[in-house]
Amino acid sequence: MAARSELGRLAQEAAALAGAVRGALGPRGGRALLVRPTGEALLTRDGRRLLEALSLEPPTARMMAACACSHSAATGDGAKTFVVLLAGVLSGLRAAAGGGGLRWALRAFEAQVLERAVAQGLRGHLLSALPGRQAEADGGALEAVLEAYLGGRLGPGERRRLARLCCEYCRRCAPAAASRPQVLRLLGRRFAELHAAVAGLPVASSRVLPGLVLRRDFAAYCPAGGDLRAVLVTEPLRPALSAPGVEFVVDSEGGYQASLRWISRRTEALMKHLQSNNVKLLLSSVKQEEVVIYHAKLYGVSVVECLSSEEIALICEITGLSPYTPFGGNTDREITEAAVATFCQPLLLGSKRCVHVGFTSVCAFQPHCLILCGPVDGVNEQHAAALQGAFTMLQQLFKTVDQRERCKAEGESQNEAADVCSWHSSATEQQLVIENIVCNSNQVSERQLKMHRDETETQIVDPDLQRSENSTGVQTNLQVLSNPLSHIKELNVSTEGNDSSRDVQKPHAKCEHVGDMHENYKSDSLVDNQKNYSTAASAAQSANIVTACERLDVGKDLEKTSCNIVPFKHKKSCAQRPIVLLSSEKKRKKKADQLRFVENQVVNGTNFLEKSIY
Amino acid sequence: MLNKPEVDHLTTLILKAFMFTVPCHVETNAVLGKCVIVPVKGRRVADSTVLPGLLIETPEIHLANPLTVKRTCSNLVKVALFCVSMAGDLSNPEEGTITVHHGISLEMLELNQLLNIGKQLVSDEVGLVVCQKVIHPSLKQYLKENHVIVLDRAGLCLMEPLSQMTGSKPIASIHLLSPSCYGSLKDVSIESFASKHFVHLIPKDTVVCSLILCNRNETAWDELKRACETAEHVLQLTIKEPLALLGGGCTETHLASYIRHKSCSLSASSFKDMDCSRTQYQLVADGFCRSLESVACSLNHDGGEILTDTVYGHCWFVPSGFPSVSNWSDLVSKCGCGINGNTENLNWRLLQGQFGSPVIQGCPEAPSVKVMDFLTLDCFVAKCSGLQVALETANLILDLSYVIEDQN
């Protein structure tokens, strides 16, 4: 009974969330202006940004929003649809006067009807997003895809222009079509450093510039023509008299003077050494002393200081540069840790002066920077978020191609391969990307979830359970397990009870598949969000799970949210007891356990979404 | 408010100041100089003036007038610019501890070093020493005895113009002085305004100038300064893009009549491209034209009528107090920008504002180019950019479909 009133409340919350995002849904939707009591205003049409910005009180509502956000973070799209769909499902369930039979019916529906319909039924109606040879997705097709994507996120005037801009940007960053997937991954990760926003100019002024724009001004600028060498330092270049924990004793006047003079001369010698090695640009992550800047000016070295760690990481990634430690060893040797820059000049963006530097790249990515202009800051943020989502979405498109080819290459049975691949292609929207998840999970659901966890169930729980929690890293972890199983199950399932037998027969063949998939994909594919399998896996696969756990470095994210004890336990438990294939009775018992578990949750007031429907 | 002679005087000054900032000799990159505005409150506006070079305020009148400045053999004044504190305080950036034995005074050591620097400056024939921060009195005295002009407490804002003007690199260490960081000046003199005394630094090539701006009223002075800075900015924009628009509301009315004319004659295919119907387009175009005309109308503050002519599409203001007559040509003399007189019969009509009915318009002509005095002009870049941003902001607001108020 408690569950039923919970259901009503949940349906209401979901309906409220859906109402908040509905107005921005689709190409005809409009912008939402979110006003906080503090006076901040957020202009957006992006479902994920809207949901993240809402400060929701009920923990279940927070969890719903977190689910939508983490899904959107992985795929780049679909947060609003998710929420609207969720609201519809919940209200439908409530109207159906749910009881015990409802949860079973829902599961059966998912397993038997929905999956097959999505996998096979939809397949006939799908078209390739990028027609023609996938490897050479030409500009026109890319622009059409981007325009459709941005149509749901921007106003009618802006979408075409921004799609064209984004297409040009992709083209210039990855002139070789074969390197596009890799470049898109980098763009998705580093877009924050690869674009600069200027408020107060018309949108038409947005453009693509070669090279990188660093958000600092020159501390010292010495114009130099042609190619120049650049060096990165992470420590102050002026030797210090004393450091924390070090005591400098002055026992003679001459000694003190000599020390100070030595310091000055050493700084000068360092600059001279840089000049003699033809280094014309010094990039520093810390603030340098005045003396260093002064000597740099004298010896014609431009200095940029106080660069952020993300900018440094980007520069290192593009140029393969490692920090130069002048005092580490012999200071008279050649400086080998230098990168080559084709130009280096100040750039005026609006009223701010920035550094515009063109590095020669050692990877496939040709560094270009996107300058976004808009009437107000809010518009620039909106555009930047839309473009970031576009890169995530594009990664999915290119990923499909790889998998399809790889699937065929593996020489699986035609049927299975075809199904697996079609599964992937139909579920394009739903593939998870690990890098994105690991990067984004910190921001995405952190804000939403503040649940306290005191449950310590050590069961290997459903992907849904995991998904509803914070760490999407865990999600993908478990998807490794569920993936091959779902295929097996999908192929010949009539009732759930039969699954086990099939599993027993086929584990080895699928094991290799899993293992291969593991090696080949850096990310794992989440086939279906709604799957509710208790994750039965064969013993042979447990080894893979362990490696998956370790490789994904799940623990990092999990510390932050105390809720995710399960993954930890999972990690430990898989080493301790191999996960065995569950027979149908065991599965039912497991479900009973889960029910009790859920009821505890409901009582404690921390509900998991799926469970609370029961 | 300023009267006409004051406006003319200031205009000349601002132009002069701007011309000073344009470099005479350009090697590779032309960079505009800087105009530093010096406040003098309590004098009339007409006392404002422009001087090439920089003015540094000196509190004391210790310097004799005329100044005797040490010059080098090429008749230039050598300048040393310091950006560290030379006050002898041990501003140590060290993080750890420094233990000093009994009998050693670090301040004495520092002072000795400063005096050594002084000796080196004198032997290098430096004529002027400027320090961003404070100079120790002993060092000051020593340098003065050796006929070196000393200016301290110059401040951070003056560092960049000073180094740009003199070519000197600000010295950041009192332990190592490199002769390559000195700069040069053509002359140094003393100026006085009101009760303030300045040392006037005159460079060889003027890229930096000082505008001494006077105003009786202190609060009005801030607004005057803002106006001068904006004027300089507009001049810089005009150098970047040498176009000007006719002001006084004429460009707005001309543009409005042109758009009205054009929007009647668009082909059907262009509507398909834009994905809207002809009526929708004309509604929007009409709204835009009305908004332009409302800008022109807002220029009128004395309640008279505003007319537009159907030949050139310019804006004409009728002084208030006259009864409305049918023959407008008696009341108007010149259009808003001043380019058209009322010599021909220009078929004026009232500018309608928000509630009139759409007007059928022939194509407005460009006025024949006559060299006229006192044309009112507008900055092209600023206006163009302003129109575009305003339109996009309007678009943004129209695109807002709902507002969520988060009260948590």
UniProtKB/TrEMBL annotation, chain A:
<dbReference type="Pfam" id="PF00118">
    <property type="entry name" value="Cpn60_TCP1"/>
</dbReference>
<dbReference type="InterPro" id="IPR017998">
    <property type="entry name" value="Chaperone_TCP-1"/>
</dbReference>
<keyword id="KW-0143">Chaperone</keyword>
<dbReference type="InterPro" id="IPR027413">
    <property type="entry name" value="GROEL-like_equatorial_sf"/>
</dbReference>
<dbReference type="InterPro" id="IPR042619">
    <property type="entry name" value="BBS10"/>
</dbReference>
<keyword id="KW-0547">Nucleotide-binding</keyword>
<comment type="similarity">
    <text>Belongs to the TCP-1 chaperonin family.</text>
</comment>
<dbReference type="GO" id="GO:0005524">
    <property type="term" value="F:ATP binding"/>
</dbReference>
<protein>
    <submittedName>
        <fullName>Bardet-Biedl syndrome 10 protein</fullName>
    </submittedName>
</protein>
<keyword id="KW-0067">ATP-binding</keyword>
<dbReference type="InterPro" id="IPR002423">
    <property type="entry name" value="Cpn60/GroEL/TCP-1"/>
</dbReference>
From TrEMBL, chain B:
<dbReference type="InterPro" id="IPR027409">
    <property type="entry name" value="GroEL-like_apical_dom_sf"/>
</dbReference>
<protein>
    <submittedName>
        <fullName>McKusick-Kaufman/Bardet-Biedl syndromes putative chaperonin</fullName>
    </submittedName>
</protein>
<dbReference type="InterPro" id="IPR002423">
    <property type="entry name" value="Cpn60/GroEL/TCP-1"/>
</dbReference>
<dbReference type="InterPro" id="IPR027413">
    <property type="entry name" value="GROEL-like_equatorial_sf"/>
</dbReference>
<dbReference type="Pfam" id="PF00118">
    <property type="entry name" value="Cpn60_TCP1"/>
</dbReference>
<dbReference type="InterPro" id="IPR028790">
    <property type="entry name" value="MKKS"/>
</dbReference>
